[in-house]
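User: Hi! I have a protein structure encoded as tokens and I'd like to know what sequence might fold into it. I'm fairly new to this, so please keep things simple.
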């Protein structure tokens, strides 16, 4: 499927799949969405802690890079695992303007290292941030009790409903440690029902710009 680079409303770039009319990030602001959904409502719950994060949909690396930047501010030590079945190309990567838009020029090398490091290999990108990229379909995830936090950033239910199934959320539930948290931009009733069915306690929160609501799910056991 054809992919093209577009600018979102906050000035940051993303990738659009024209055939689906679907983007890797919100058209209303890629950076704003990542900050609101994954940092403000996820990462911020773990200040001053050592945590492990699973990202469902590594994509452009935006969520990982913002997590690195914010983790430094929150005195966190982070073990980050990003799952992606279809990595972006080197040409697409150079079109992503996140370093500039985040005023993070001092850490440009970190963003590049996140993309250039080998798949299936744990890599230290800094003293407080380790990343492992896994080239894997979400259906193949079989982790057990490994993660404190999951960023669930799959393509939307409208175009890939199979990625929001009860079976997938069972895998997410299994992958989380007790009292772990999953955050996602989604807020469909069918998604909430699947989460609840596998044991999650689900909260409906205010969504990012352009979206009224989002979900945060907790594994309370």
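Assistant: Happy to help. Inverse folding works backwards from shape to sequence: for each of the 221 positions I chose a residue that suits the local structure. Here it is:
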């Amino acid at each position: 499927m054809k992919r093209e680079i577009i600018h979102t409303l906050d000035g940051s770039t993303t990738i659009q799949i024209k055939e689906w009319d679907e983007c890797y990030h919100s058209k209303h602001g890629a950076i704003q969405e990542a900050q609101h959904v994954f940092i403000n409502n996820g990462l911020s719950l773990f200040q001053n802690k050592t945590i492990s994060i699973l990202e469902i949909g590594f994509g452009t690396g935006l969520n990982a890079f913002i997590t690195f930047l914010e983790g430094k501010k929150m005195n966190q030590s982070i073990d980050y695992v990003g799952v992606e079945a279809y990595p972006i190309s080197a040409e697409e990567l150079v079109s992503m303007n996140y370093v500039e838009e985040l005023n993070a020029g001092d850490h440009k090398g970190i963003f590049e290292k996140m993309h250039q490091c080998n798949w299936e290999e744990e890599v230290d990108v800094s003293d407080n941030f380790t990343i492992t990229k896994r080239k894997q379909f979400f259906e193949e995830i079989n982790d057990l009790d490994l993660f404190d936090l999951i960023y669930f950033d799959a393509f939307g239910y409208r175009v890939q409903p199979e990625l929001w199934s009860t079976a997938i959320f069972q895998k997410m539930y299994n992958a989380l440690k007790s009292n772990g948290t999953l955050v996602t931009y989604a807020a469909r009733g069918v998604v909430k029902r699947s989460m609840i069915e596998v044991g999650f306690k689900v909260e409906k929160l205010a969504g990012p710009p352009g979206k009224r609501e989002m979900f945060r799910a907790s594994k309370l056991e």
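A useful reference point when you look it over: The first strand starts at residue 3 and ends at 7. Feel free to ask if any position seems puzzling.
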